[in-house]
Design a protein that fits this description.
The protein is α/β, with parallel strands linked by helices. Helices cover 32% and strands 17% of the residues. Strands 3-2-1-4-16 form a five-stranded parallel beta sheet. It has a five-stranded parallel beta sheet with strand order 6-14-7-8-9. Strands 10, 11, 12 and 13 form a four-stranded antiparallel beta sheet that branches. It holds the Pfam family Fer4_20.
Length: 464
């Protein structure tokens, strides 16, 4: 047996000096030769831990073996038997904390590039015009409403329509995709990829209704008069702020607004798209997750001379994916670690300085990370003209607040049975960020798959 390389097959990327001048995707993806070379690293373990690490249960060794054999279409279709959004997951899912984390090769080197291979087969299938629509089961006569067209909702719709149910997706925005279109930048997830994956769900037979705000246009109770079951997947769209002095000054934005203007409303293409957005020269982004990295990298592309991530812990504790942190570093994003904003200072109503205090790490807190503790008397000021607050978000409150009998948790999340997605209201299921708070695309999809099975059983049997 040939010696297995300890490192993943490299993936070509846009040169770092060029990519901050455009919003084009940074990684180019694998060529056919790259993909086969990477697939040859897979050991085809008899007990595949990677499958157990996948929230949507993809046959990972199976599709990788097909790639190794050059059977790219067959590999794509095997992936899509479990994952209806492979081109998206291959780009944005944290494989390093899931399937790749438990890969046997990771013990002595780098794991198999499962995410890269998933992206490759999905793109190859589309680029070669070989996307096939699988046969559906006979119609059951049952009607399911899916509220929200993000990762959870699309997964539920794709699974249920294939077993013969009539599925209608209701999306509040004018474009489908949820966080995939409003939250994740073009350079990380091109929107034509999202559109392609949504079109696949529609080709399976799901109906899509946009600009339909459930909770305002119609309530859940009104939909229950028409549909046999409802899945709520409205995500986490309520941004958090810190509640510090000066936070209402001009020039201070939530990451939700900043990224929605850029991504969904195409502000970066002004004046082709007439969407205003601030183009600061000294931009501070508060937070250490993927949303913070997206915001900081976006600021550079919008012309910032300094894009500064302000994070209260050290680099080690940052929750963002390592790949996103590295890309940010390569592109020139600056980092102020162990730093906490405490107050904003203004000039003519606009933010001009951000007062901060230095932190030191204490004992671990409930998250397992060391707790940041302020250092008394260490206050200093950063010159800024724009601030983006990316410290998290809560579930969107509209549907829960307009649905009597729906139990809601302390943080505004819909309470669900984790094994079925059932809520406290008969016929209503939920999953994804509306139930868990902000999490990952693939975890939302996993919740959608669980709910889809339970919805199918409920509408077929009537048992709650």
């Amino acid at each position: 047996m040939a010696k297995v390389s300890k490192k993943k097959t490299p993936m070509k990327e846009q040169p770092r000096r060029e990519r901050t001048k455009n919003f084009d995707e940074v990684p180019y993806g694998y060529s056919e030769d790259d993909a086969v070379r990477e697939a040859e690293r897979c050991l085809q373990c008899k007990k595949a831990f990677c499958v157990a690490g996948c929230p949507v249960e993809i046959d990972i060794p199976g599709f990788i073996e097909l790639v190794r054999q050059g059977k790219f279409v067959e590999a794509a279709r095997l992936v899509k038997a479990k994952n209806v959004l492979p081109a998206i997951c291959g780009r944005v899912c944290p494989q390093e904390d899931q399937c790749e984390k438990v890969c046997v090769l990771a013990k002595k080197g780098e794991p198999v590039g499962i995410g890269r291979l998933e992206r490759f087969v999905a793109d190859w299938e589309a680029q070669h015009g070989q996307i096939a629509v699988p046969d559906k089961e006979r119609p059951t006569g049952k009607k399911i409403a899916v509220v929200g067209s993000g990762p959870a909702g699309l997964t539920v719709a794709g699974d249920l329509v294939q077993v013969g149910h009539e599925v209608t997706i209701f999306e509040a925005l004018h474009k489908p995709g949820g966080v995939l279109v409003y939250g994740i930048p073009e350079f990380r997830l091109p929107k034509d990829i999202v559109a392609r994956e949504v079109q696949y769900i529609e080709s399976l037979g799901a109906k899509l209704v946009t600009s339909f705000v459930v909770g305002m246009t119609r309530t859940v109770d009104e939909l229950l008069e028409e549909f046999d079951a409802i899945f709520i997947g409205t995500g986490a769209g309520l941004p958090w702020f810190m509640g510090i002095s000066g936070e209402n000054l001009n020039g201070i934005y939530s990451a939700n607004e900043y990224l929605t203007r850029t991504n969904l409303m195409k502000a970066y293409l002004f004046p082709q798209y007439d969407t205003p957005i601030v183009r600061g020269k000294r931009v501070a982004v508060i937070g250490g997750g993927n949303v913070a990295m997206d915001s900081a990298r976006t600021a550079l592309r919008l012309g910032a001379e300094h894009s500064i991530v302000v994070y209260r812990r050290s680099r080690t504790e940052m929750p963002a994916r390592e790949e996103e942190i590295v890309h940010a570093e390569e592109e020139g994003v600056e980092f102020e670690f162990l730093t906490l904003p405490v107050k904003y200072h203004a000039s003519n109503g606009w933010v001009k300085q951000m007062e901060c205090i230095r932190m030191q790490l204490g004992e671990p807190d409930a998250s397992g990370r060391r707790r940041p503790v302020p250092i008394e008397g260490s206050n200093f000021r950063l010159e800024v003209d724009t601030v983006v607050v990316a410290i998290g978000q809560s579930p969107n409150p509209l549907v829960p607040s307009t649905t009597p009998g729906l139990e809601v948790g302390r943080h505004g999340n819909i309470v669900v049975d984790s094994e079925t997605g059932k809520t406290s209201k008969k016929g209503v299921f939920a999953g994804g960020d509306i139930a868990t708070g902000a999490a990952t695309v693939i975890l939302a999809m996993g919740a959608g798959r669980i709910a889809a099975r339970a919805i199918d059983e409920y509408v077929q049997t009537g048992r709650w």
